[in-house]
Design brief:
Length: 165
């Protein structure tokens, strides 16, 4: 199943260094990310970050957050199944499912507003403060995804424990 580097497609180059060109924006995003992370359970947070990054096709963020989740002890199976969570709910707790479902609804707004039943389901598993932080975390990873996809962040070079965002 493995292939050597000679058989792989060449790595793309990033389009833009947002952190270097707009350092105030980058620092504000890092600060926002740091604040929202303090209000969300770390396991739920990584699941949310991975799921939003899957939906947004952000390879850079997928690389980062799957590595961070693995380094924090998350299982490979749960990370793999996240892209098909609706059919593999037995991998997740009811609270995690509510967070993942809310992530889908907030991330894919082309289907309309976040449905009341999705919000109400999340509200049953998170108190109001937790829910506020969770919504902020989902919004923040969506912003990071848009930076990553537009600037063409290059996946594969992130090391857990470093600040890449």
């Amino acid at each position: 199943m493995g292939s050597n580097d000679a058989e792989r497609a060449p790595e793309h180059q990033p389009r833009l260094n947002i952190a270097g060109l707009a350092p105030e924006v980058y620092k504000a995003m890092v600060k926002l990310d740091t604040v929202v992370c303090k209000g969300v359970d770390p396991t739920v947070l990584e699941l949310v970050k991975i799921r939003a990054s899957q939906l947004n096709h952000c390879a850079f963020c997928l690389d980062m957050h799957t590595k961070d989740a693995l380094a924090a002890g998350e299982s490979v199976a749960r990370i793999i199944q996240l892209s098909a969570w609706e059919e593999s709910q037995h991998f997740y707790s009811p609270k995690e499912i509510a967070a993942i479902e809310l992530t889908d609804a907030i991330t894919v707004l082309t289907d309309g507003f976040v449905p009341d039943e999705v919000y109400d389901h999340a509200a049953k598993h998170f108190d109001e403060a937790e829910l506020a932080y969770l919504i902020a975390a989902i919004t923040t990873i969506n912003a990071w995804n848009r930076f990553g996809v537009t600037a063409r962040g290059v996946p594969g070079h992130y090391t857990p424990g470093t600040t890449a965002h």
